[in-house]
Amino acid sequence: MTTIRAFIAVQLPDEVKDALGEVQRALKSRVSPSAVRWVRPEQMHLTLFFLGDTDTDKLPSVRDAMDVVATSHAPFVMRLGGVGCFPNARRPRVVWVGLAEEEARLVSLKAALDASLAPLDWTPDDKPFRAHLTLGRVKDERGVQGVDWATDVARLSVPITTLHLIESKLRPDGPTYTNRYSCRLTAVE
User: pTM for this one?
Assistant: First the structure.
C-alpha cells in the first residue's frame, strides 16, 4: 500500500500571502527568535480537511467527493480578519489571521466536505471549525508570554473558488506541497 500525507485546502492569492508576511514581520519583532516556528508565506493556505496518511488507491474517491461538493457550492469572497491565537492569547500554541464575511458559506462548504468524506472513513475533527490562516506555531511558551498579538491586517479579499487536494512531504527545513487535484466551485447562486 502506497500512502501520501494529504489535505484539502483553498489556495491564497499572492497579494494575500504578501500581506500575511507583513503581519508576521510585525509580530516577529515582539517575540524571541526561537519562540515561534513561522510558516513561510508562500506556503500559506486555508485548510478545510486534513486527510493525513492517505492510501493512494483512495485518491479517486477523494477527488469524486471533492467534485460533488464543488458542483453544489458557488464561489464566494471572504476578507482577512484580525490576528488570533489557539487556544487563546495568554497561552498561545498557534498564531493565526482569521477570515471575515461569508462565514456561514464557508461553514456550509466545510460541512459538505465533511459529509462527502465520511463514507470514505474520514471523520471530521471534533473541534468546531474556525476559519484561520496559520502564521506560526509556538515552540517556546516562555518566549511569547505577555505578547500583544494585535497588529494591523489589510482587509484583502480571499476568493473561495477552488478546492485543492494537496500532498505534503515533511522535510527538516519544512514541508513541501504538491497539488494533486483541483476542482472549481461551479454552482450558480
Answer: 0.95
